[in-house]
Amino acid sequence: MEQLYKIKKGLDLNLEGKAQPNLKVIGIAGEYAVLPEDYHGITPRLCTKEGEHVKVGTPLLVDKATERVHIIAPVSGVVMKIVRGERRKLEQIRILADKEQEFEDFGSVDVAKVTATEAVDYLLKSGLFAFMRQRPYDVIASPEIKPEAIYISLFSKMPLAADFSVVCKGREDDFKAGIRLLSKIAPVNIGICPEQECEDYLANVEAKVYGFTGPNPSGNVGVQINHICPINKGDVVWTLQAEIAILIGQLARTGRVNLTRRLAVAGSRIQSPQYVETPVGTAMQTLLAGLLYGDAAHTRIINGNPLVGRKSGLDDFVGAFSAEVCAIPEGDDVHEVLGWIAPRLKDFSVSRSYFSWIFGKKKEYDLDCRIKGGQRHMIMSAEYEKVFPMDIYPSYLVKAIITGDIDKQEELGIYEVAPEDFAVAEFIDSSKLELQRIVREGLDILRKENA
Amino acid sequence: MIKKILDKIRPNFEEGGKLKNFHSVFEGFESFLLVSNRTSSVGVSIHDAIDSKRIMSFVVIALLPALLFGMYNIGYQNYHAAGVEAGFWAMFFYGFLALLPKILVSYIVGLGIEFIVAQWKHEEIQEGYLVTGLLIPMIVPVSCPLWMLALAVAFSVILAKEIYGGTGMNIFNPALVARAFLFFAYPSAMTGDSIWVSQNAICGLGCDLPDAFTMATPLSLVGAGQEITMPVQDMITGLMPGSVGETSVIAIAIGAVILLWTRIASWRTMLSVFVGGAVVGWLFNISGMDSAAAQVPWYEHLILGGFCFGAVFMATDPVTSARTETGKFYYGFLIGALTISIRVLNPGYPEGMMLAILFMNMFAPLIDYCVVQRNISRRVRRSHKA
Predict the structure, then answer these.
(1) Predicted TM-score of the model (pTM)
(2) Nearest by Cα to A320 from A36, A102, A82
(3) Which end of chain A has less Cβ packing within 10 Å, N or C?
(4) Measured distance CA(A56)–CA(A259) in Å, rounded
């Protein structure tokens, strides 16, 4: 380990229904979908049509701006339906899977010998490049710009998050091959938490490893970058989810893209929470079959975890960047009288005006999705700062975004943040502002202005 | 059951209903009785149980000890001045009856304006006034006429809060603006020796005092260059004349414990106000100035007048105080220091707390600017180095 950073600010949430380390593999059958919206920052152009047969790895969409970033089919089958929304915006490309899966062959490579350009081209061709994100702006990376470094966080302290040790089990060599390939493009920095059992996948890994202790969001790659080597204006770094490195390694070793991920299926409304191995784009119906319990009409299904996930439903599909799928009570059937003064023993709060501080950190909570308060202007001061472990003033940055003051946003460090870094702050916010949405929109506007 | 009643009367308040002009009032009461079951649609799916209603109600709870003691003290001062013996409850109810109309006027006028603004802007009603509305009657003398109070409340809610955009956007503490308004518009009702004790019998309780009755507060004695006649233990228990809520250090300390324990008030601000006051008070003590105010021991300065009340309930208002943790130390220290300086150096204003806080309200954004600018220049330096 290069260095151990001790992070003090933040908040760990202990929710009911954490995934147990059992793995269930579900076979490929039925409908799958590619959701272009997952690939934020890409303007997609369709390169398939309804009725066409595609293999795993066949490009379905290509980025209009570069014509090089492909979004590929996660399963082989027939393109059944292309769903468009308002103003013909592409929403879903649905594929009916074949019984026998066919794969595009991209050819295996020797990860020890490739050059940077070859590595980037290889990732572009295979479609895995679409899983690289870049800072600033937290969008899909551009192949035109060489990154200063690549950052991967091997843990997440988000509530109900997947544990990388389970996700990586049995795929350690793939992971190391993936890192090796990435290290040809730019130096790779890995963030781990010291409690992780990581001897298997970190031995002889071609990367600098940094340790991070402390509460959520210490596992956010943005927080780690801010500690290791903060991003300055003009710098570009890439980030990717740890599991994608495994997929890259698989590709390099076999020549085939396999978009199968191990998702943590968790939450208080899941019977026996566990890990499920399934391709990206699996229908929620298929994924959650037999796992949900409780009143389905009042259950929220989340593509991701309860803090950074997207609100979803049974008719939705697993997103490309979801490492978890969670089901928790929606709470729209709860009618609570005088809640603002009641003791609310079952609710969680960082505020000592409630009683969660008595029960300690061991107690697991079953929180619902109610906002539990009206939206206000920022009233309490330095609230976000308490859970924002970066050298940034988040409340001032948010204000600069709300007022559209781009110079101020730059000065206050907007290039270093992603919406997910504001998730804990959004959770504890007593003024109930939608911080992640505000930051996302701010980043998008800034990107347009700077383009 | 509550839900059924609300559901039944809701159509009246919706678009096209006959009471649609009271839409915001209905929503205000609805969210007061029943937690809204609106769920999040973007961003985090789960939320902390805290909200501004909870925060404001805890500030009100923290104010209650000082308020209840204030009521008792009003009665005590009246009976004491008349030289009549009376029981605890007689004193308390006398004070209760003397103060109740003020609290009602403050809430009715202030919340009335809030309701109108919320209706006009199609916003939810903001809870901030729950605290302000209780603070205002507690920081004026007991004899302040109701019409003056109503005027001050309207002035502060409209000009110190709503024109900035409501709770969270205001620069000055609205309660202090109300007091400052009275202080400058009607100085005779806010200063002098004849206003601190309730003079009339109410509903058979209390005593009518002679017209010429006067009773000075310790600070006005000092301001007039005299010695303080009250013993220190009265300053701490609060059995002395003064604004309704400010006299008892014990009652305010209970409120301070509630606010600090729930972390609604910042210990940084509160502590540094006291440190600032103590340091400057002590400097005047050893300076050799021979004015009466300079020779008041520094610890007495801290327990006299509105110092404690201001430090605990006013300086810590999160909206108008400095918003950075570092800034809060400077902000608080300067409030304490300015308060004592005003008391000592300006005999025209025996009480400096109000002016000091308002003055620092104005400078809080500047303090924050400097603190945040340090972060900005650090980032600039970093990018030049790279």
Answers:
(1) 0.91
(2) A36
(3) C
(4) 8
Q: CA separation (Å) from A100 to A28, A95, A260, A282?
A: 9, 14, 15, 16
Integer Cα distance of B146 and B152 in angstroms: 10
Torsion over CA: B245, B249, B254, B258 (sign): positive
Residue type, A417: V
Looking at residue B386, what is its pLDDT? 64
Band (B210; pLDDT cuts 50, 70, 90): low
Residue A84, CA distances (Å) to A35, A94, A351 in order: 11, 11, 44
| Residues B25 and B69 placed together within one structural domain of the fold | no
Inside any domain, residue B107: yes
User: By the CB < 8 Å criterion, does B4 face chain A?
Assistant: no
Distance CA B179, CA A225 (A): 50
Taking the C-alpha atoms of residue B386 and residue B380, their distance in angstroms, rounded to an integer, is 10
* Shortest CA distance from A380: residue in chain B: B318
- Rounded Cα gap, residues B257 and B262, in angstroms: 8
Of B2, B57, B372, nearest to A340 by CB-CB distance is B57
Chain A contact set for B386 (CB, 8 A):
232, 235
Rounded to a whole number, what is the distance in Å from the CA of A398 to chain B's nearest CA?
13
Kindly report which listed range (A309-323, A413-427, B298-312, B325-339) carries the lowest average pLDDT score: B298-312
What number of CA atoms fall less than 13 Å from residue B320's CA on the CB side?
28
For the purposes of burial, counting CB atoms within 10 Å of the CB of B234, is it exposed (0-12), middle (13-18) or buried (19 or more)?
A: middle
Question: ipTM of this predicted complex?
Answer: 0.90
Domain residue limits at B165? 52-373
Residue B31, pLDDT > 90, answer no
Domains annotated for chain A, with CATH where assigned, are 3-19+107-254 (no CATH), 28-97 (2.40.50.100), 263-359 (3.10.20), 384-450 (no CATH)
B43 vs A426: CB contact, 8 Å cut-off? Answer: yes
Nearest to B323 among A13, A300, A382 (CB): A382
B215's tokens: 């009773």
SS3 B208: coil
Lookup: tokens for A11:
């908040």
Residues in chain A, total:
451
* Closest partner CB to B126 (pick from A376, A380, A430): A376
CA distances from residue A3 to A176, A192, A227, B370 in whole angstroms, order as listed: 21, 11, 10, 32
Contacts of A15 in chain B (CB under 8 A): 46
In a domain, B41, yes or no: no
Contacts across the A-B interface (CB distance below 8 Å): 215
Q: What is the DSSP string of B139-185?
A: TS-TT--HHHHHHHHHHIIIIIIGGGTSTTT-SS-HHHHHHHHHHHH
DSSP secondary-structure letter at B272?
H
A354 chain-B contacts, CB cut-off 8 A = 49-50, 54
Tallying the residues shown for chain B, one arrives at 386
Counting as low any pLDDT under 50, the low residues of chain A are: none
Q: Which residues of chain A neighbour B57 with C-beta distances below 8 Å?
A: 340-341
